[in-house]
Specification:
326 residues, SMI1/KNR4-like, 12 helices, 9 strands, Knr4/Smi1-like_sf, Knr4/Smi1-like domain-containing protein, Knr4/Smi1-like_dom
Length: 326
């Protein structure tokens, strides 16, 4: 791609973004000003490509319509492509922005991703792989390549595109890689019925007095798959039951003193676990935050002596729905 040409010449950026309340809440920043761009570049230590700035001037962060990039090498995501769930905006305000609380430096400093440049692309695995601007060959002021970094594969780096604009132009719709929905559903059912619990979930279940709770969790997961065709948690009633069940286990094991504490403890129970174990493979914090706040507003979550607990009636109703002993 000729970096001296006007970025995205002839490319329809107006149809690039998939607008939604979730995207606006979690990703979209105000249009980037020269001062904001300079501040972000200074914080990251890299000059952003002109094409990245041009894309963010069309919308500063968000979720694209076309989310798949074809590859000729297999990754933890698929044999023939990688997926991007969102682009990080140029800013500091949104937690998912380049310099937000869960931005590029967070991935390097907290998640041990290699310090090769700027992590701009979130993936559906919710942290188990990322897409990055790779400045190793060009230096911090050059034109970076785009790579996929696979935590599941020991942070294996797979080249994707020679520059950011080529990467964006090469994205295709996920429908090009869709499997037969019935096959996806059957695979998901087999997974929730028989995949082993990871050590953390198993320990939490072992600490619970009713040995039938693991079976109840699997039944709930099976109901979710029957409804959706896959295993993922969103804002539906069964997802809310699974959030409550995880809160039940976590609060039984140790005090939950804040929503932030719950969100920190949440990954690793059934989200963000290896694909060989029982789990959703990813999570969206906004859904969990909304569940927590809704339960507080309804007095289903109550605070006593600085700790959050499920209210007595809500807890009893949950255990009855699960078919588990109190």
């Amino acid at each position: 791609m000729n970096t001296k040409a006007t970025p995205f010449s002839g490319f329809d950026l107006s149809s690039f973004w998939d607008d939604s309340d979730y995207a606006r809440k979690e990703y979209v920043e105000p249009p980037p000003t020269p001062a904001a761009i300079a501040a972000v570049e200074a914080a990251l230590g890299y000059r952003l490509p002109a094409s990245y700035i041009a894309l963010m001037q069309s919308q500063n962060g968000g979720i694209p319509f076309r989310r798949c990039f074809p590859t000729d090498k297999a990754t933890s995501w698929a044999d023939d492509h990688v997926a991007i769930s969102a682009f990080k905006g140029i800013g500091f305000a949104q937690q998912w922005s380049l310099c937000g609380g869960l931005g590029s430096r967070f991935k390097i400093e907290a998640w041990d991703y290699p310090d090769i440049g700027v992590y701009f692309g979130d993936c559906p695995s919710a942290g188990h792989d990322m897409i990055a601007l790779d400045y190793r060959a060009c230096g911090p002021t050059g034109e970076p390549a785009v790579v996929h970094v696979d935590q599941e594969g020991g942070y294996r780096i797979t080249p994707l595109a020679p520059d950011f604009e080529t990467f964006v132009r090469s994205l295709v719709h996920e429908s090009e890689y869709e499997d037969d929905p019935e096959d996806v559903k059957n695979d998901a059912l087999a997974h929730v019925r028989s995949a082993p619990f990871n050590s953390r979930l198993q320990k939490l279940c072992d600490q619970w007095p009713d040995p039938e709770l693991p079976a109840a969790i699997r039944r709930l997961a099976e109901a979710i798959v029957q409804d959706k065709g896959f295993f993922a948690l969103h804002a539906d009633a069964n997802s809310h039951r699974m959030y409550a069940t995880q809160f039940l286990l976590l609060s039984h094991s140790r005090p939950v003193r804040s929503m932030e504490g719950f969100l920190q403890s949440y990954p690793g129970v059934i989200a963000m676990v290896g694909s060989a174990h029982f789990g959703t493979g990813g999570w969206a914090p906004g859904f969990v935050e909304d569940w927590f706040q809704a339960r507080v507003d309804a007095a289903d979550l109550v605070q006593q002596e600085g700790q959050w607990h499920l209210g007595t009636d809500f807890r009893a109703a949950l255990l009855q729905e699960l078919g588990a002993a109190t």
